[in-house]
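Hey, I'm writing a tutorial for new members on how sequence and structure tokens pair up, and I'd like a real worked example in the thread rather than a made-up one. If someone can provide the structure for the chain below, I'll link this post from the tutorial.
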Amino acid sequence: MTLRPLLLASLIISSLFLPAAAEPGVRPQDDLYLAANGAWLARTAIPANRSEVYAADLPLVVNARVRGLVEGLRRQPQAPGSIGRKLLDFHDSYLDLVAIERAGLAPVLPPLAQIDAIDSPAALARWQGGIQGVLKTPLWFWGGFADFKDPGINRALLMQGGLGLPDRDYYLKDEARMLEARAAYLAYLTTLARLAGDPAPGDTAQRVLALETKLAAAHLPAAEAMNPARVRTLDVAALALAAPGLDWQAFLAAAGFPDGAAVNVVQPEAALASARLMAELPLADWKRYFRLRLLDSMAPVLPAALRAAHFAFHGKAIGGQVAPTPRAETAIDVLTGALGDGLSALYMASYFPPEQKARVERMAARILAAAHEAAGRIAWMDAATRREAQAKIARTTMRVGYPARWRDYGTLDVRAGDAFGNRLRARRHEWLRLAAQSGKPVERDLWTMSPLEPNAYYDPVLNEINLPAGILQAPFFDAAASDAANYGGIGALIGHEISHAFDTTGSQFDSRGAQRDWWTAADHAAFRAFGATLVARFDAEEVLPGARVNGKLTLPENIADLMGLQLAWQAYSKEARPDEAPQFFLAYARQWAVKRRDERMLQLLASDPHAPAVLRANRPAMQLDAFHDTFATRPGDPMYLAPAQRLRAW
């Protein structure tokens, strides 16, 4: 994937270099995933307040460090308006449940009154523009991206959205689990309406669910929704012609776009259908819908009854949790989301030394060099296309750790004891920052992803890979670990991101980041055949009874997993020690040590472009000759794959 979580390679981490995680009774030839993680899986229970648990939960590691930094701020005077003061006031207001309970529904009454006052299609459009950043409306904007055709210019994306359930399938399929989720959602909507004083909460909930079902039917399926080839760049006049029914002038102006701004419409078909629904469905139903969407979005900073309803649906019914996540943990998450660069500047001084940054940069340079060489052998390209692929790698930028400059939060209004207002203002502040960039030159020294996030991504328009400091720690990268372990960890991740430059999305952007077709017809045909094999293999994987992997949805990430492991091995093999080779594969498999509840797995199967963990560990390894050589696999071993069946990407 590419372009941050939308078109962006987003790799959720879950790994550990723990010898105690290995299962002595399972050989890698039988099941690499279980050989590396079986003992941990056997002794680990999912906590009641979680829907999944990782062998190494790097978000929790980062959050614990951040919590210490926040507490450290208390030991020094913080001037009014300073970043330290804002961090403390935001954090403490979120934790002050007594103040939140005392305020009751008062904080949300003004925006609810604004919804009640909507009396025309233009007013409906203006309200949606004014709430951008706070919640995802049926058509919502995502900013901070380079234009697909002109990578030097910033252009916001217009996305399909507005659903309270995880994906359109939850509305449109009549499988038992989907029906259960819809029933839970209807009960949740009814509770929200009742707690907000609606005189007919059951009727309101039914109307809102019916409206969202129409929206879901207008959405493209997840496997088709993120294709850059569909994107159209439209200004206000063009939007009005292409998608009548929504007052686009009022919508964009209230969203904070400069006059004359154009946007990249990612799902034009959905935009047309959603805009049509704006005109066709009763205004009263839209007002009911937006009241409940706002209450859902802001429930974590509203009284206990709303928070409990929010958990009963999102945490329990959809995520399978038994108990809520402790408030102290979510406080750090929301603080990072609101003031991430302010926290990051503190974090780097304590937890990301320059020598660690330098070592990762050296490893990344070696893997890029290996990729440049390997690009000359990409299986589905002819000679001319391979040369352009090598040019693309030569121009790839690797950003490690943190950006060159931090964001300025001087204009963000953070108030002590105002959890609701702080959440709303912080979200809107960030969106307006992004909206103001539209049509202006791209600021390449700013990041979209927080440096604290244990994640990574490839951006095909900027042709750059970002490796935030949050992921550059054990187990992905450990200064005390062997080269084999580090190449199997962070090396495979770097290779994964490089590989996104040549998948179904990255292939649509050339070495300078412009969207154009630089492959021949024969290249495309060969790639489709290669991909079809992967799709078929993953479609055959049943994860839960009656629930299979969506091979088409997961194809880009499956290709990147395959190519990333092969590339990491090629880079490592230039300096490999044969006795350490098993560490490479075991370290790779430990990246995926995770236990999930069935509800969470079902949610991911419907919407996540990544395959389940065991498949991400085992399937790429089975394609690599070095795996079979290292562990001397033989016909009859469950992990054995005949040479003719192994997929070789590089």
